[in-house]
Amino acid sequence: MKFFTLGPIGLLALLASSFNAAAHADQLAEIKTRGTLVCGVLSTLDPFGYMDPESREVVGYDVDFCKGVAKQLGVKPELRQLSLDARIPELSQGRVDVLAAVLGYTPARATQIAFSDAYFLSLQKLAVQQDSGLNTLADLNDKRISSIKGSSTQNFVRATIPGAKIVSYDDAPSAFMALTQRKVDGFGLTEAMLRRFIIKLGPEATLKVIDAPLGQEQWGLGIKKDEPQLLAAVNTALNKMEESGEAQAIFDKWLGKDSVYHMERTFKVEPIKP
Amino acid sequence: MPDFLKSVLSLFNAPYGEILLQGCLLTTWLTVFSFVLAVMLGTCLAMLRVSGNSFCERVVAAYVSYQQNVPMLVHILLWYFGVSNVLPIFMQDTLNYFGSEFIYPAIAIGLCMAAYYSEDIRSGLRAIPHGQHEASRSLGLSYLKSMRYVVIPQALRMCAPPFINHTVLLFKNTSLAMAVGAAEMTYAVRDIENQTFLTFQAYSIATLFYLVVSLALMALGSYVAHRTRIPTR
């Protein structure tokens, strides 16, 4: 009896562990022999990773960093579109080599995957309706705030506005639409993307961004745990991109003065401080 | 293996136990609300479908094929982001206050499953020989009364098996409401998975939950069907 109930489960566990073992060869060597670096990117978060309507290709800040790293490694980049909440499992199961997918550092994530040096510093902010009378974060204490499933915004909201109710959606456009339709009182996201959404609404936008940030986080490229060679190679690549000015150029192209965001680059590629 | 069980059990402790409980409750409410809506509307639709009025019959047939041929998720998104937008502002505000993530999906699921139920009940109605209806009319019962006391009680018994199947389907389909942020069971489990990264464990809990409740619904349905069946000679 016991055999019949535990047998199949045991077999599954055995299978799962053998998969892990099989994938344990040196990933960097594997990438070099394969000749491609498989990057997990997002396709719905303008300007970090989104589908360019003209070229029908995924482009963005994250995508350019992925391409830059691939160039430094001397291989071709291969983009794979992921959903925000499935990106970490996709990486740990080895379906992608590197995650360039608005991946903010959190201690919980760091137990699952390894982070490269930071390539972006993100301030998370809240957008609200202009006529809502909500001006500070504290005003939203018993209000409803939308966010994306599996994003770090949820943790920031829990920490800074403990009384708020979080309503999570599958992707950023849905969560943003919930705010424009007044289904929620606030919407939390990385500032650049937040402003991008408001700009897209055009002159009729009735939204404003609350100045005080919910929190800030450093973004790194995600790499599978226990792949020290690959991690070191990616870090070297990122630092070379910083030295050559390529990192600055990517920032200017997507977020800098000439873009719609007019943001200043206040950070450099550097190791993440936990 | 004990480690696996231990980590599964750890998900029932604070703070995750609370999330699971809330998810379980919301799934239950979604199921109950949309079930009541679907059964009431489904019965009305089925009666219109066999009423003999060709206009009513066509309208119902069109409604049924619309509901059955559009994916449930599309219905939910249409209600949540679309229909909600054309309502008057004060109604929108009231609904948002009471939790639009619950109400719109519940309506969408209820309306969609009503189409399935109406077909089930119609098949039951068609299984009752027309002579029964004629006999009750000749005894002096009105159309509605002969439906109410003679035809429908028998028809409902006939359609129990597909009715039970579709109730299980309705229960499982409530998981689609997570797309619009309703924190039902699947949403809760995904949320916990995102916080703890105990993927296998979290989804095992959801699997077990849906399996147990679905089987219980089926058992309850066949028990009721068995208890209310008309004894045959």
For the record, give the distance between the C-alpha atoms at the N and C termini of chain A, rounded to a whole number: 49 Å
Q: How many beta strands in the DSSP annotation of chain A?
A: 12
- Helix content percent band of chain B: over 70%
Quick one: biggest sheet of chain A?
9 strands, mixed
Termini gap of chain B = 54 Å
Radius of gyration over C-alpha positions of chain B, nearest whole angstrom: 21 Å
* Helical residues, percent of chain A: 25-40%
On the 0-100 scale, what is the average pLDDT of chain A?
A: 87
Q: Which of globular, elongated, flat, extended, rod-shaped describes the shape of chain A? A: globular
Protein described:
The complex is a heterodimer of chains A (274) and B (233). Chain A has 274 residues and is α/β, with parallel strands linked by helices. In chain A, 38% of the residues lie in helices and 25% in strands. In chain A, strands 1, 5, 6, 7, 8, 9, 10, 11 and 12 form a nine-stranded mixed β-sheet that branches. Chain A has a three-stranded antiparallel β-sheet with strand order 2-3-4. Chain B is mainly α and 233 residues long. Chain B has a domain of 159 residues: MetI-like (MetI-like fold, Orthogonal Bundle), CATH 1.10.3720. Helices cover 83% and strands 0% of the residues of chain B. In chain B, helix 5 crosses helix 6, helix 6 packs antiparallel against helix 9 and helix 7 runs antiparallel to helix 8. The radius of gyration of chain B is 21 Å and the shape is globular. The model of chain B has no long low-confidence stretch (mean pLDDT 91). Chains A and B meet through helix 1, strand 9 and helix 7 of A and helix 4, helix 5 and helix 10 of B.
